[in-house]
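Before the break, one more example. Copy the sequence into your notebook; we will annotate it together after we see the structure.
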Amino acid sequence: MSTILRFILLAAVLLLCPPKVQAEKMVLMTSWTAQAQFAGYYVAYEKGYYKEAGVDVEIRHPSLTTTPLVCLRREQPDAIMLSLMSAMDLISQGIPMVNIFQDSMNSSQLLISRRDNDPLKMKGRKVAIFNPDPNYLAYVVSKKEQLNFQIIRCTSHINLFLSGAIDATMATSYNEYLQLLQSGYPLSKESVYRFSDHGYNIQEQGVYVSRSYYQDHAKECQQFAKATRLGWEWVAQHPEEALEIVMKYVRSDHSATNLTLQRRMLQEVLNLQIDADSKKRDFCVRRDMVEKANKLMLACGLLKHSVTFEELTIP
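Here is what the structure looks like once it is written out:
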C-alpha cells in the first residue's frame, strides 16, 4: 500500500471517528459532609449523567467548621451549595453569585424549645445555632418578634440541647430534628416552631457560581443543571437504590450517621423539593421568596443593600 493511500485511509478514519472532546471540569462544593441531602448529585455522578452531558464534575465536601465564604476563598470551587439567604448576603457584600440549580423549594428551618415551652414566648432565652452557619432566620424571628434571643454559636448544639445547657435550638427538619427524634427526646407540637408555617417559608439550598464563571461556562452550567435534575428525578423514583449510593459517600467521607437517619433524611429532602403551589419539583428560584427574604433581611440589618431576583438568576 502506498504512503499516499495510507494517508487517505487514515484521514477517512479520523473523519468518521473524531477524537473525544475532553469534558469540562467543574468542582462542586457541598454545604455539608456526605449525607442524603446531596443524593441527586451523587446519583448524577454515579449514573454517568454528568459525563453524558459533557461535564466532568468533582464533588467535594467541606469540613464541619468551614463557612461558604472560606470555601470560596480557600478551596476555590467552581460551584458551591448555598442557601438563598446566604447567596443574597454574599451578593450584598460585593461577591456576585448566580444560581444555576435550585433543589430546595421550601424552608426546613425549625426552632425547638425544651419542656413544651412555646418558642415565641422565650424572650431573652439561650438559643443555639450551628457555627459557622449564620442562620439568618434565627436573627429575623428574634428581632421581628422582639424576643432578643441570646444566640449561642456551637458545633454540637444537639448535645447542648439534650443536656439542658440551652433553652432552645435551631434545627432543620431533615437533620437535627430527626436526630432528636431518634434519640428518644419527647417533642410536643407546642415546642416545635416551623418557620414555613408562620410566613417565613424561604427556599434554601441551591448551586451557585460566580457570575464571571457563568459568563465563561454558560453551556457547562446549563448541562450541569439538566444532569442534576435527572439525578434527583431518578432518586425520587428509586429512593432505596439512591440510599445505597448515599451510604457509599457517607462511608468514604467518614460521616457520623446511620442508615435509618439517612433514609428519613432522604424522604424529608424529597418532600421539601415539592413546591407548595405547583405541587411539582420545579428546581428553580422563586421571585416571591427572593423578595420576601430581601425584605426580612433588610429590616433586620442582615443585608448591606437590597438584592433583586435578577441579581441571583440567569437572564
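The longest strand covers residues 24-29. The chain has a mean pLDDT of 90. Try to locate both features in your own notes.
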